[in-house]
Amino acid sequence: MVLADNGHDVRLWSHNPNQVAEINEKRQNEKYLPGVTLPEAITASADIEEAVRDAAAVILVVPAKATREVAAKLAGHIPAEAVIAHATKGIEPKTSKRVSQMIEEELEHVTHRPVVVLSGPSHAEEVAKRQPTTLSASSVEMEEAKKVQELFMNENFRVYTITDMVGVELGGSLKNIIALGAGISDGLGYGDNAKAALITRGLAEIARLGTKLGANPLTFIGLSGMGDLIVTCTSVHSRNWRTGNMLGKGMTLDEALAQMGMAVEGVRTTEAVAELADKAGVDMPITKGINQVLFHGAKAKDIVDQLMTRLPKHEMDDLQDVLNAR
Ligand SMILES: NC(=O)c1ccc[n+]([C@@H]2O[C@H](COP(=O)([O-])OP(=O)(O)OC[C@H]3O[C@@H](n4cnc5c(N)ncnc54)[C@H](O)[C@@H]3O)[C@@H](O)[C@H]2O)c1
Ligand SMILES: O=P(O)(O)OC[C@H](O)CO
């Protein structure tokens, strides 16, 4: 919708022919954006080759677990000059790859163009109402990030550029783990103090892992770090917060995911990051605790008790580690 508002012709590809028909015939996408009328400049197709033919930019926004499959389908059809961007948030379990790395691997025989990530506090429900939203466009090549900035920028949608791709992708992905935790905390009946603690100490562990993996610590106080962490931990739109909330109220993970019926990226990311923290030797007690709740039958209340009764620490120990890692 933002691209259509900016005067671009937008072709959506979907693997679901019913969704394609609904978008083209009714200008609606009822399951995902109920009540929103899509601009005429948006057309949908179930044929990926037709969708990307002669495209100036190709933007992947499928759930992280479908990224490789869809990028592989794109290979061979992407125009050589097309800007390649994504807005997906997740880390691949086992490989610990970021989304841009998965896309680059799947397209390596076709193009070596650097991928751009568009990330930040941006729930689609509010973007569709044209409410003020700010994001970061990041690529290792500033020129590529600027192209995405120029495509998307308008009076409702402000895009900043940044070249710390590692920090932007990790911040956008790891905040979903903490949002699950914020939802669990609210579901257990804990208050704002607990949520503020989760957000702040969650950011400390995101920054600790991120800097170990090469990110700039400052990125984590930017839009794709603190900004997205705030929106996902506090918004009723957040699928991660809502799923955590159902868990805190006693539902099983399978029940909560069935009720959501949409991508809840934090679940798979928690598993991936708990593994990655061990590999990287980084202390991530909140992530590990949420992993125990999601996959190992731990009771959320017991995990909170464990987190609260760890040995006393100096608050700035973590920040010093982050700075030392630079
Ligand atoms: N919804 C938001 O506000 C928002 C904002 C920023 C980033 N994101 C990120 O965008 C990504 C997608 O989220 P979403 O909200 O659109 O999820 P969603 O579950 O609402 O929609 C996902 C879409 O991908 C399609 N899909 C699923 N598996 C597929 C496959 N194997 N092949 C092709 N298509 C497939 C689904 O049919 C659906 O149309 C996630 O990584 C999410 O974190 C979402
Ligand atoms: O609804 P969530 O929890 O998947 O969050 C969506 C976006 O990442 C918010 O920026």
What's the layout of helices and strands?
Elements lengths: L1 H4 L4 E4 L3 H10 L15 E4 L2 H5 L4 E4 L6 H8 L8 E4 L12 H9 L8 E4 L4 H4 L5 E6 L3 H11 L4 E6 L2 H24 L3 H21 L10 H12 L4 H10 L4 H8 L4 H16 L4 H11 L4 H9 L8 H9 L1
Parallel strand pairs: 1-2, 3-4, 4-5, 6-7
Antiparallel strand pairs: 5-6
Helix pairs in contact: 4-5, 8-9, 8-10, 8-11, 8-13, 9-16, 11-12, 13-14, 14-15
The structure holds nicotinamide-adenine-dinucleotide (NAD) and SN-glycerol-3-phosphate.
Structural description of this entry:
Substrate binds at residues 89, 239-240. Pathway: Membrane lipid metabolism; glycerophospholipid metabolism. Residues 164-304 form the Glycerol-3-phosphate dehydrogenase NAD-dependent C-terminal domain. The protein is an alpha/beta fold and 326 residues long. It has 2 domains: 2-118, Rossmann fold, CATH 3.40.50; 166-325, Orthogonal Bundle (N-(1-d-carboxylethyl)-l-norvaline Dehydrogenase, domain 2), CATH 1.10.1040. 52% of the residues lie in helices and 10% in strands. The chain is built from 16 helices and 7 strands. It has helices at 2-5, 17-26, 48-52, 67-74, 99-107, 124-127, 142-152, 165-188, 192-212, 223-234, 239-248, 253-260, 265-280, 285-295, 300-308, 317-325, and strands at residues 10-13, 42-45, 57-60, 83-86, 116-119, 133-138, 157-162. Strands 3-4-5-6-7 form a 5-stranded mixed sheet, with helices on both faces. Helix 8 (165-188) packs across helix 13 (265-280), helix 11 runs antiparallel to helix 12 and helix 13 (265-280) packs across helix 14 (285-295). The chain is globular, with a radius of gyration of 20 Å. 43% of the residues are buried. The model has no long low-confidence stretch (mean pLDDT 96). The structure holds nicotinamide-adenine-dinucleotide and SN-glycerol-3-phosphate. Residues 14-16, 32, 61-64, 66, 69-70, 87-90, 122-124, 262-263, 265 line the site of nicotinamide-adenine-dinucleotide. The site of SN-glycerol-3-phosphate has 14 residues, from helix 8, helix 10 and helix 11.
